[in-house]
Design goal:
four-stranded antiparallel β-sheet, 75 residues, 39% strand
């Protein structure tokens, strides 16, 4: 959840490469995320990536690449 806006990181599960956006928090499966070993994975089994084009995406297959690595903190 974005602490400034209260919006949730959201994605769908329509293709191999899915867009990610902020949307009002609700009961959407693309809004539930887990963090494990510096990577984020949603309830649909997709991994969050930054592929270097200034957009976030999710992909189904994990590789040991830097585009999967995330760091952060919990308030």
């Amino acid at each position: 959840m974005n602490v400034n806006t209260g919006a949730c990181l959201t994605t769908d599960n329509k293709t191999e490469l899915n867009a990610v956006w902020l949307a009002p928090c609700g009961n959407r499966s693309g809004q539930f995320w887990t963090a494990d070993n510096s990577r984020l994975q949603n309830q649909n089994g997709n991994f969050l990536i930054d592929d270097g084009d200034n957009d976030l995406h999710t992909v189904r297959e994990y590789t040991n690449s830097n585009e999967f690595v995330w760091v952060g903190w919990t308030p």
